[in-house]
């Protein structure tokens, strides 16, 4: 009886633990209702649309609870929820639910009013808006949002919500709002929608660093950078920065498809990138897709001079330097090796001597051993040749001696010593 009671107590404890675990996981999956229409505007939602009678939905439930727990534990901004699609069929149809279970990621947040639109403008420096109803363009927009959601913000709105200063030639349309203006996606001029969004997700003028230049490499744009010393308040440093800002602001309609503008503090990173020593202040135009660059071939006095220089780059009259040829790659390998060695010796001379002195010492010992082994081999071979010559000379002397005996009439057959017993008999 006592064993049965302990077994029952153990089973009861296990059941309690399982129920608590299920309840704990469910706490991170929200049951959604009609209020989801408003709540989804401020957050990104991963939603499971299910039906109460669906067997597959019941099998998915414990897995979905674990998804909610995992999203919470890693600190993801994505919220996990589930909705009875049979009870809220209008919302389910809005998300295109046709079967159960269906999982949707609510990437695109609707902007229901102008006040909400203005709130988003104040909150985000760059964001994209789809305007219109259901269309193939919207499907492309959703695909682009699923790919680039970690980089920028995606919204949808009706034409009435858009500010009055926005003029649209046709509907539907995709717009990017940035730099206190907007640009409209044109499929014929801008190509693929995802590529256009990836190019336009940056502000027109930026403070550059190495990581940002790496990201801009995927845009295919030329990056115009004023390389300055921000601690230096001289006229030349501030003038170049102001000229680049003026070009980015006043000529953005002309250059925003092909150019990105900004400034960089110091020339250390640029020198490493170009494998050259640039004087500060200066202006350099980078093509991050093929590692080419353009340096100033004239004095820049104002924005018009800078615009002329950029136009000359576009028409090919300014010579491009660098690139990704085999020669440039070999030069890069040598430059990186040299930079690494120099940096090691600058930071820690003793460590540099150990890292490079030890291998050189081992190599020197190996070379010495190989050299001495070759010398010993030559000496043995030389001794062998000497011994061979001595044997040959000895044979020659014996032959000459035999010839002399023959010529003097001496016995040809050598004398044989008689046995000892015969010698004793002769004595007797």
TrEMBL record:
Residues 17-150 form the Thioredoxin domain. Residues 384-404, 418-428 have a biased composition (Basic and acidic residues). It is a single-pass membrane protein. GO terms for molecular function: protein disulfide isomerase activity. Its main location: endoplasmic reticulum. Residues 384-428 are annotated as: Disordered. The chain crosses the membrane at residues 349-371. It catalyses: Catalyzes the rearrangement of -S-S- bonds in proteins. One of its GO terms (cellular component) is cell surface. Residues 1-27 form the signal peptide. It is found in: Endoplasmic reticulum membrane. Its EC number is 5.3.4.1. Keywords: Disulfide bond, Endoplasmic reticulum, Glycoprotein, Isomerase, Membrane, Redox-active center, Signal, Transmembrane, Transmembrane helix. It holds the Pfam family Thioredoxin. Probable disulfide isomerase, which participates in the folding of proteins containing disulfide bonds. May act as a dithiol oxidase. Acts as a regulator of endoplasmic reticulum-mitochondria contact sites via its ability to regulate redox signals. Belongs to the protein disulfide isomerase family. This is Protein disulfide-isomerase TMX3. It comes from Carlito syrichta. The gene is TMX3.
């Amino acid at each position: 009886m006592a064993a049965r009671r302990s077994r029952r107590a153990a089973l009861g404890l296990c059941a309690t633990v399982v129920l608590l675990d299920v309840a704990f996981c469910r706490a991170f999956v929200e049951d959604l209702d009609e209020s989801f229409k408003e709540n989804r505007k401020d957050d990104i939602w991963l939603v499971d649309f299910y039906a109460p009678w669906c067997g597959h939905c019941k099998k998915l439930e414990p897995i979905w609870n674990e998804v909610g727990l995992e999203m919470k534990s890693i600190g993801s901004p994505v919220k996990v929820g589930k909705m009875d699609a049979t009870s809220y069929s209008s919302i389910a149809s809005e998300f295109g639910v046709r079967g159960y279970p269906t999982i949707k990621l609510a990437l695109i947040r609707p902007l229901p009013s102008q006040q909400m639109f203005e709130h988003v403008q104040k909150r985000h420096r760059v964001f994209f808006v789809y305007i219109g109803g259901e269309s193939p363009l919207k499907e492309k927009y959703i695909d682009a949002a699923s790919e680039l959601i970690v980089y920028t913000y995606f919204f949808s709105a009706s034409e009435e919500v858009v500010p009055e200063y926005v003029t649209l030639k046709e509907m539907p349309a995709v717009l990017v709002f940035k730099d206190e203006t907007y640009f409209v996606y044109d499929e014929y001029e801008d190509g693929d929608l995802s590529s256009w969004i990836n190019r336009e997700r940056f502000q027109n003028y930026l403070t550059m660093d190495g990581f940002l230049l790496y990201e801009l490499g995927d845009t295919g744009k030329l990056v115009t950078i004023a390389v300055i010393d921000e601690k230096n308040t001289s006229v030349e440093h501030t003038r170049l920065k102001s000229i680049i800002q003026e070009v980015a602001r006043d000529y953005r309609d002309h250059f925003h498809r092909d150019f990105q503008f900004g400034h960089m503090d110091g020339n250390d990173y640029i020198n490493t990138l170009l494998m050259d020593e640039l004087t500060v202040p200066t202006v350099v135009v980078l093509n991050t897709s093929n590692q080419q660059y353009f340096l100033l071939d004239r004095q820049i006095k104002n924005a018009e001079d800078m615009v002329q220089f950029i136009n000359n780059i576009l028409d090919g009259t300014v010579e491009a330097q660098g690139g990704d040829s085999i020669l440039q790659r070999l030069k890069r390998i040598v430059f990186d090796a040299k930079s690494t060695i120099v940096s090691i010796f600058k930071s820690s001379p003793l460590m540099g001597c150990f890292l490079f002195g030890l291998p050189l010492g081992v190599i020197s010992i190996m070379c010495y051993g190989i050299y001495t082994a070759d010398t010993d081999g030559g000496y043995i071979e030389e001794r062998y040749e000497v011994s061979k010559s001595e044997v040959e000379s000895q044979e020659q002397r014996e032959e000459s001696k035999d010839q002399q005996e023959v010529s003097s009439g001496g016995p040809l057959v050598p004398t044989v010593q008689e046995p000892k017993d015969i010698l004793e008999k002769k004595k007797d």
